[in-house]
Structure formats: structure tokens, C-alpha cells
Specification:
The chain has 267 residues and is of the alpha/beta class. It has two domains: 76 residues, Ribosomal protein L30/S12 (60s Ribosomal Protein L30, Chain: A), CATH 3.30.1330; 161 residues, Alpha/beta knot, CATH 3.40.1280.10. Helix content is 37%, strand content 22%. Helix 4 links the parallel strand 2 and strand 3.
């Protein structure tokens, strides 16, 4: 007997719609929305406004920018808008949907984007909770030589105005693969393709520079700012490596580590 609910979610139409929504980033708050609309690389789809907003220079500017970029302007009640922004306390009656063509779902990644004729390198985030760190990691990866950032929905900071500001707009350009949880994603990666999972460990014997000779797909895992990499993720690791440091300094900020990974072959 076929489960009708499961059958519905497997249809090409449903999967296409799901992939589309996972490529849309909703930004809330007047200043963050203004900055997003002013960013040349941002592709706004809809500007959502609460019908309780009073006419002002700021609202007029937002509407003019949205129309100039071909975005639709939609009015809602305050409660309806808060359901879209998911942050009634800080949305200030304004949010915007941005289409990020570089954002892909887990299923799309394995079905389409993994079919490359070259080895790929990724940074995976395991419990990164500081929005500023997340933003700087995204910026380094987008500017560097990384094929994508694996960002789980569980246990990590999510993209919000603080992350966007810290990334200096790089969130609109970076390749970001969304997954439900990192452990399941990495396990699926290992089952689907040849890949080396690389973790960083102060006590590892393998030095960072030796990774340049390692062939095939690679995933560099960055752990929580305080606790480091989870035991679940560590169990999937193929290589533990360390970055040599002087003066008895034990570790670097996780965003600095992301920058070293992103540019390690070019410096």
C-alpha cells in the first residue's frame, strides 16, 4: 500500500517547489532590508509591508528600490507580516524575499551539483552559533576557493541581519547547501561519493599543509566556538589535522580558520 503523503512529496513538482523556497532568503527590519535592496547582487522577489506602516521617507525609499529591481510589493496585516518575517519584535513592519541562486537543498546537491568532473571542497559547520562568525565564514568561503558551505538547520546560527552584515553582502553570492542535520548529510555524502571528512584537532599528528596532496572531494568541518566538533561528527572523520601555532596559543577563531582553509592553496 502506497503512502499518499509520501507519494505527494516525491513528485517532481513538489521537489521543484521545495528547492525554490529553499533558495529564498527572507530579510526583516528596515535597515537590513534597505541594505539588501541596495546591494547590486541581491535579487529581490517581494517586498512585504505591514499596512499599519505610516507613510515615511524610509518606506518610500524601500518601495522605490524594490520597484526599480522588479520586485513585487505586497501589503499585509501586522500579524500576517510577522508570520512571514518570523520575528515580530524586530521586523519593523518590513521584510523582503531575496532569491539566492547559489542556495541549494540537500537533495538538489546530491542529484545535480555533485556531478562535477573535478574534486570539490566544502566547509561544513558543526554548531557554529555566533552570527558574526557565520557571516565572516561565508565571506571567506565566497571570496576564496571553496565550492560551498554546508549549513545545517539544526544546531547552527541561521542567516539573519547580523550574519548578512558580518558577511558584507557575501550571503547573496556564496554557494550554501542547506541540510537538516550535519551528521546525516555527511553520512549520505560518504555513501554517495568518494569524500574525505577532515576535522581540526590540536592534538592531531597530521599537519595542515599536507592536505594539499590529498585527492578527491573534501569536507572541512568547523566545530562549535566553545565545545568544538561533536562526537557524532568526529566518528565520521577520515583525517584529523592541526594548524601549527607558536607561543602556546591553542586555537584560532573559527572564522580565521575558515579563511585559512579557503585560501590555503593560493597563499
Amino acid at each position: 500500500m502506497t503512502n499518499k503523503s509520501s507519494q505527494k512529496t516525491d513528485t517532481p513538482e513538489y521537489l521543484k517547489k521545495k528547492a525554490f523556497f529553499q533558495s529564498v532568503l527572507t530579510i526583516y527590519g528596515r535597515k537590513p532590508v534597505l541594505e539588501a535592496l541596495q546591494d547590486p547582487s541581491a535579487k529581490p522577489l517581494k517586498l512585504h509591508l505591514a499596512d499599519s506602516n505610516k507613510d515615511s521617507e524610509a518606506i518610500t525609499q524601500l518601495k522605490e528600490l524594490a520597484l526599480k529591481k522588479g520586485a513585487e510589493i505586497v501589503y499585509h496585516s501586522k500579524n500576517e507580516l510577522s508570520r512571514i518575517s518570523k520575528n515580530a519584535k524586530q521586523d519593523q513592519g518590513v521584510c523582503v524575499d531575496i532569491k539566492c541562486d547559489q542556495y541549494v537543498s540537500e537533495d538538489t546537491f546530491f542529484e545535480e551539483h555533485l556531478k562535477k568532473n573535478r574534486a570539490l571542497e566544502f566547509i561544513a559547520l558543526d554548531g557554529i552559533t555566533n552570527p558574526q562568525n557565520l557571516g565572516m565564514i561565508i565571506r571567506s568561503a565566497a571570496a576564496g576557493f571553496i565550492d560551498g558551505i554546508i549549513l545545517p538547520e539544526k544546531g547552527c546560527a541561521q542567516i539573519d541581519p547580523l550574519v548578512i552584515k558580518a558577511s558584507a553582502g557575501a550571503v547573496f553570492k556564496a554557494k550554501i547547501i542547506r541540510c537538516k542535520d550535519l551528521h546525516s548529510f555527511l553520512k549520505r555524502f560518504k555513501e554517495t561519493a568518494s569524500v574525505s571528512i577532515i576535522t581540526l584537532d590540536l592534538n592531531a599528528s597530521l599537519e595542515f599543509s599536507t592536505l594539499n596532496t590529498l585527492e578527491g572531494n573534501k569536507v572541512f568541518v568547523l566545530g562549535n566556538e566553545t565545545k568544538g566538533i561533536s562526537s557524532e561528527t568526529s566518528a565520521l572523520s577520515d583525517y584529523a589535522t592541526k594548524i601549527p601555532m607558536n607561543n602556546n596559543i591553542e586555537s584560532l577563531n573559527v572564522a580565521i580558520t575558515a579563511a585559512l582553509i579557503s585560501f590555503r592553496k593560493q597563499l
